[in-house]
């Protein structure tokens, strides 16, 4: 682990530069430990692909040096993840058509039929590398190489909630209506963010996701 200051209000805890399951497991385990026993002065904990940013109150006595010491003491208590601490979520998706207007373009770039592109997208178990951009938006690592597609040159001003997109090497889900530059291949009726819940985001860094294709009728009947 490498600790570095970020301005005068945060510490970045780094776990190397390699994005993958092993690093994300370390990030998730450290996040759980920090959330269970946050160092005095902690204001926010933000996990990502290879780092955790811990925001603290700079007015506390000792400033960065004292907070870093408390943070290190907490991180020494980190243990390996136990089974059941990582969620595996199946996300139903209606692909193509009005739900995924860019599916044909993605399939064409991959030199696949639309059906084969859908099969390729639903095959892997993805890992949530980070949650951000918009509340509850999961950046999912593990997209098959053939489906890698550069972001749109002209982002959409309004992407429907639940849209499943591909941006570069990653896939993800737009939890709310928002602008977006990813290619849209489908849409899920599943709600990934609910501000009224104690834990608003359905997914956390390190969780696993698998997509499941559904029909338009199943989408309409979803409750």
Structural class of the secondary structure composition?
A: alpha+beta
Order of strands across the biggest sheet? 5-12-9-10-7-6-13
Average predicted confidence as pLDDT: 92
State the separation between the terminal residues, measured CA to CA.
44 Å
Order of helices and strands: EEHEEHEHHEEEEEEEEH
Q: Low-confidence segments, ≥5 residues, pLDDT <50?
A: none
Radius of gyration (CA) equals 19 Å
**Shape verdict:** elongated
Strand content: 25-35%
Helix content: 10-25%
Number of strands: 13
The main β sheet shows up as: 7 strands, mixed, barrel
How many separate helices?
Answer: 5
What does this structure look like?
There is one protein chain. This protein has about 220 residues and is of the alpha+beta class. About 25% of the residues lie in helices and about 30% in strands. The protein has 5 helices and 13 strands. The chain has helices spanning about 20-35, 65-75, 105-110, 115-120, 215-220, and strands at about 1-5, 10-15, 40-45, 50-55, 90-95, 125-130, 140, 155-160, 165, 170-175, 180, 185, 210-215. The strands form 3 sheets. A 7-stranded mixed beta barrel has the order 5-12-9-10-7-6-13. The protein has a 4-stranded antiparallel beta sheet with strand order 1-2-4-3, covered by helices on one side. A two-stranded antiparallel sheet has the order 8-11. The relative contact order is 0.17. The mean pLDDT is about 90.
